[in-house]
């Protein structure tokens, strides 16, 4: 397994991972699939804050972060996303990606990482808790997908504490 910065040529593989999650699960509230061109632009924009996990030359997961909210008061806070292909789950790749992403975030002066997690994804809540994220809130019924109202669970980790 290799964790490395994403490259624009990884965009199709990343689109395959995220679009399967969008179309087949309640993990994300969106129903709009991502196009490789927009993912490649995100990779260029986020640079070192967009990582991939690669196994035997195949991209099987990614982690990235972007602004949590606009305005200078939130300059040191980022919201992250992590997604793995089904065949990559349960093998430690998610933890490896998140540990590296946190290293990058600290180096870039990020103080807090935020996770916004669908209540339909209890494994992601447990995953983040195991990494030291604390549940700081739950927003009832803010998500709607496939006729279901879903809660958004907010978790955060203050990076300076380590």
From TrEMBL:
<keyword id="KW-0012">Acyltransferase</keyword>
<protein>
    <submittedName>
        <fullName>N-acetyltransferase family protein</fullName>
    </submittedName>
</protein>
<feature type="domain" description="N-acetyltransferase">
    <location>
        <begin position="1"/>
        <end position="160"/>
    </location>
</feature>
<dbReference type="InterPro" id="IPR016181">
    <property type="entry name" value="Acyl_CoA_acyltransferase"/>
</dbReference>
<dbReference type="Pfam" id="PF00583">
    <property type="entry name" value="Acetyltransf_1"/>
</dbReference>
<dbReference type="InterPro" id="IPR000182">
    <property type="entry name" value="GNAT_dom"/>
</dbReference>
<keyword id="KW-0808">Transferase</keyword>
């Amino acid at each position: 397994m290799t964790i490395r910065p994403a490259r624009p040529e990884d965009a199709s593989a990343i689109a395959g991972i995220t679009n399967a999650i969008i179309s087949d699960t309640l993990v994300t509230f969106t129903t709009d699939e991502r196009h490789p061109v927009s993912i490649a632009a995100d990779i260029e924009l986020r640079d070192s804050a967009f990582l991939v996990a690669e196994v035997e030359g195949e991209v099987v997961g990614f982690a990235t972060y972007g602004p949590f909210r606009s305005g200078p008061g939130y300059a040191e806070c980022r919201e992250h996303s992590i997604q793995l292909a089904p065949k990559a789950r349960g093998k430690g790749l998610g933890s490896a990606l998140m540990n590296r992403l946190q290293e990058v975030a600290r180096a870039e002066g990020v103080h807090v990482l935020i996770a916004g997690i669908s209540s339909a994804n209890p494994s992601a809540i447990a995953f983040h808790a195991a990494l030291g994220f604390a549940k700081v809130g739950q927003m009832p019924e803010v998500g709607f997908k496939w006729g279901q109202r879903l809660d958004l669970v907010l978790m955060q980790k203050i990076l300076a504490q380590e």
